[in-house]
Every structure is written in structure tokens, then in C-alpha cells.
Amino acid sequence: MDARIREHADVICNHSVDLAPGDNVVIDAHPVAADLVTALHEIVADHDAHPLAIQERTGKRFLRAYLRNHDGEFSAPEHVMALYEEMDVYIAVRGSDNVTQTSDVDPETQAAYAGATQELLDERLSKRWCLTQYPAPANAQLAQMSTEGYENFVWDAILRDWEDVRAFQSQMVELLDGASEIRVVSGEDTDVTMRVADNPTLNDYGEKNLPGGEVFTAPHPDSVEGEVYFDKPLYHQGREVTDVRLTFEGGEVVDHAAAKNEAVLTEVLETDEGASRLGELGIGMNRAIDQFSYNMLFDEKMGDTVHMAVGRAYEDTVGDGNERNDSAVHVDMIVDMSENSRIEVDSEVVQEDGTFVFEE
Amino acid sequence: MDARIREHADVICNHSVDLAPGDNVVIDAHPVAADLVTALHEIVADHDAHPLAIQERTGKRFLRAYLRNHDGEFSAPEHVMALYEEMDVYIAVRGSDNVTQTSDVDPETQAAYAGATQELLDERLSKRWCLTQYPAPANAQLAQMSTEGYENFVWDAILRDWEDVRAFQSQMVELLDGASEIRVVSGEDTDVTMRVADNPTLNDYGEKNLPGGEVFTAPHPDSVEGEVYFDKPLYHQGREVTDVRLTFEGGEVVDHAAAKNEAVLTEVLETDEGASRLGELGIGMNRAIDQFSYNMLFDEKMGDTVHMAVGRAYEDTVGDGNERNDSAVHVDMIVDMSENSRIEVDSEVVQEDGTFVFEE
Prior knowledge:
The structure is a homodimer.
Chain A: H1 3-16, E1 24-29, H2 34-46, E2 50-55, H3 60-68, H4 78-86, E3 89-94, H5 107-116, H6 118-125, E4 128-133, H7 137-142, H8 147-158, H9 162-176, E5 181-186, E6 190-195, E7 202-204, E8 209-210, E9 214-217, E10 225-230, E11 234-236, E12 239-241, E13 244-249, E14 252-257, H10 262-269, E15 278-284, H11 296-299, E16 305-311, E17 330-336, E18 341-345, E19 348-352, E20 355-356
Parallel strand pairs in A: 1-2, 1-3, 3-4, 4-8
Antiparallel strand pairs in A: 5-6, 5-18, 6-10, 7-9, 9-15, 10-13, 11-12, 13-14, 15-16, 16-17, 18-19, 19-20
């Protein structure tokens, strides 16, 4: 087994979910990640905790078989709910042998199933949890990398000194907390402002998401003004949308365009009221992530980028009394900030061409 | 996918566990059996039941990692217990990529873990359940067969008309129910008698065990007299014991011998009081099983054999008021009945050289 797999397991258990004696642990992983699941069992034993390996959200081949043969009247399974209720820690490992495994399942069926099992998701999210990635060949292929190159990419992003990361990123959190307005400028096509007053900024240093490496907050839903060109493609439900452009007025997207699969973008924006307003502004600060990989768990933390999500705002990023943008969707898109770009906080430049003011 | 896999899944769901709408189903299987698990998900969907794929008893590599890194003070995990309590149907699929995966785990640790998690086993056995086999290459290797040869062997044994089997075997059940004494004679070395009066005979036609194909009852623990030579090897905890001979007096094994690994046999017999007395007499009637495969799930159902188990008797095979042999062990061993042999029930021959009286 690659030595980095045991290090990965160590970070998950001893940093991300902070495993404690007696914890009831569920590990949800595809067999391609069996090495990591094995290493996790070693550490779970060290902590005198209790492991169970399952394939619920990761068993996409099984899910496909189930969904394609079901009449569509779904309900949440009571035995899985009972498992999750007694669970203290949930570890979900992304990675499979075919990332397009559910491509021939009717999207409406998938949505109906997701809706019917929402309470399972809510229960998982109410526990200590971590979502991480195993560098399987199929995921390397999605990222357009060699398998070995992708292994290096994944573990470089994950095997960080997360206390250092926390300290580094907290400087950005300090700049944003207490700010009223943020302006993001990049190239000729992106110049957007938004109010964030009294909305907390969160520091993501590899706990619920591994890799971590961003700070993020929520704009006031009606405050966004300007234009954004998203340099990086949006990969949504297996379809690639490129060169997305959004124009905001009074917080709302009043114009949108894309070079490829614009219809997918339109569909997202028209999901509901909140889907055409921003729910998140995030600043990617993990410079070990230096390539786009068609995987938002990594892409949104990429160094020298910002991302904006249309749709639902995270509860913890909305201050008391402030409006929270609500939606069934939360779709992140990424702007390159490495060149000819800046972030202004209340008219002061805090990042220019990828360099933060606290690095100068 | 081999067409026989969907037939196998169909037998499991529609015969063995008799799946009903809304059933909460747990499928415990190693990834080598992913085709069968997929086919099971299709049928579970057809029945509007709820599947969950886990690796609890089947995840031997994970279990090895856990057991080797644990301090040895085990307790039963509450979240797994909660899952099993809400479960209606448990399907365990044997089959792995290495049948000797736990060979370097201290047997005492394994025993301590089994003891601490006994309540999980009891809970599973209180539900509708099925134990079956996937014909994985490692299991073919254990059986000393080619992979394709083993696939044919496994599915020939499993894909039977189980109603026909039930009817055929019920003739033997009728002969044994109401009998007082059974005598088994084979070759020069086996001649043993035992009382079975008022102990029910069960008909195994592919429900809890798939394949099924035996009828079995319990001898009175103090009634067994004579000598038995077991033609087929005993494969116990990864070790092969050959040419086992047992001599019974007053129900107790008073002499024993084996050509290979006699110490393993001695260890079994000395486990506790009940380990040196019989807990089961079974008659193998599945003639599709025509080879020994080092897998008791198949071997004990082999046509033209009988098996006797030292140790624990099944509760359902002991009549009210009769003594039930109790032990921590239940170890089956097999006598070939195809040649120069007979079974007598109250001095009447019911099987001779493998042919039953009702077949003549």
C-alpha cells in the first residue's frame, strides 16, 4: 500500500473527524478505495471505535440498478436511517471505476430519489463527517491526468499541515469579517460587487471537506451588481458548460451565456427563485491544487481563484437577521485570479494577481 | 453479466427470503460478488423494498486490519445493531479474493471478537436470512477447480427447482420422523447407531442455506455407539484434517484419530463437554453437488453422503423434553455413502449404495 494512503487515513481520523473512543463510524466507499478503507479500519481500531463499511452514496452501479428497476415511488429506508441515527462519524470517500455510472438513469428519477431520501442526507450532515477523495483511475481520467499524476495531485492537496493552513487562511477571514462590500475584478470581463455585511466568513481547513483550503461567505441575495466571466468550465451532472457569463442586477442574474451546453446553465438558473442569485462567494487558497480536475471538491479550493455559487447559502455564513438565499441547487463556478485581477474589500485591495496583501 | 447471476438473485429474493414490499434488506458481500449484488438491487427495486450493501462479515481484509490493530477489548457496535434491528432480510454472500485473508490474525482475538459481537449474529438469525455463495476465483482455487468449472458447479447446485427438491426430500423426512434408531454403515470402518426418537427432522430446500439439499435431525447426545470413518477431509479454520476416525461409547467420543492435523481435531473435541458428542445427523441429497469443494455450505448437501456434527444441536431438531447437546462448536464431517453402504431406520434399510428406498 502507498504510504500516503495511511497518512490520508490519519488526517481523516485525527484531524477531519477527530475520532474519539467508542465512536460509531460509517465508511461509505467504492471498492476502488479498499486500501484507504483498510487503513481507516486500522486507525478506527487504534481509537477503540467501531467501523462499518457500506456502499450507500458510493455504490453507483447498485444505485443505477435500483433506480432503473423501481416504479419511482421512493421512500427513505428505515434501517439505513437507524444506522445513521446511531452513528457518530460519517466518512464518505469519493472515487469509483466509472464516474458516468448513472448517466443512463432518468434525471427525474434521480431527483425523486434524492428528494425522498433527503432525511438520510440531513441525518449524515448532523454528525461529524468528512467528504474526501481516493485517486482512482476513473477519476484521473475525468481530470485528464495519468493515474500516477492524479495520485500525486490528490495527496499533495490532502497531505498538508492543516494547522498552518488554518493560520494562513485566518488572515483572510479577518479581512472579510467586518467587511461591508467586496469587489472582484478579473481581466476585461469580470467586475462584480456584493454586500457581505454581518455575514460570517468560514475557514475551511480540511475538516468536512478533505482537501480543504478556502474561505467563504454569503453575499446578500439582492446586492450583487456587475458581470462575471467564469474561466473554468462548469461540470454539472456529467455535462461540461464552458465560458459561462452572468450579468447581475439587484442580485439577480438578468443575462447569461455559455459557449457549450448553455441549456444546462439555463436549466440551473431556472430551477427556482433562489437559483438565479448568489448563495456563496469563496476564495480558493490551497496552492497545492494547481490544476483544474472537473471535481468541485478540489477545484473550488484551487489557489488564485474565487468561486461563486448560484443557489442555496450555507446557514453558518448568514448573519442573524440577514436574508439567506434559498434554493434546491448550489452550483459553484470558478474565476481565475492569477493575472490582471484583484479583490477589493471596502475599496481596499486585499489580493492582486493572486498575491494576498498579508503576503507582501 | 452471466445470465445465471440474475437467476441466482431471483432464487434468493423470490424463494429463499420471500421478499415483500417495503422490506428493509441488507446485502453483505465482498466486491468480487458485485454482479450478484447488482442483480439483487434490481429485484429489490421490483419489490419496492430497500437495499443497503455492506461489508460486515464479508469484509475480511477490513476485519483483519481492525482486529490486528485493536487492543482486544471488544464490544458490539450500536450502529450496526440498530441497522440489524430495523432490517427485515439479511442476505450474506460468501466469496472473496483470498479465502485465507484472516490467517495471520491471532485465533484468540478472532474468538474474542466473535464472542463480543454474538448479539449481532443472534439479531441477524432472528430475521429472514439467506447464506449463499458467489463463484469467485479464490473460492474456485480452494475447491481445486477452474473458475469456469466452479461457476458451473455453484450455479448447478443453486439453480434447482426447489419445490421439486422439497417434495423429493420430504419422503426422507417422513421416514425419519417417527423413527427411534438410525444406523449408518459404510465400508469396513463405519458402523454407528444413534437414537433420534421424538427429534424432528428438518427439510432444507434452499431457504436459509443456498444451495440447500439435506434433511437433518439431532441424535440423543448419550445414545451414539460405534465407529465412524469420515471419507472427506475436514477443513477447519483454514487447516485440513484428513481420514478422521471417531469411536463413540454412550454418546461420547472415546477415541479419535486423523492422518493429517490430528491436533486440530483434538482441539475441536476438547473445546467443551458437548464438543465430544454429536449434535447433528444430516443426509446430503443434492446430487448436483457431485464434488467435494472444501466449503461446508456445499459439501454437507452433497448427494450420497451423510454428515455428522460434533457439538451444538439446532434447537428446531430437538423434541420437547429431549436433551439438546450444547457446545460452542458445531463441526460437520462427511461420510461417503455411494458404495458398500446403507442407512437403516429402525432396522429397515432406507438407503443402500446411495439409492433411497423411495427411488426403487
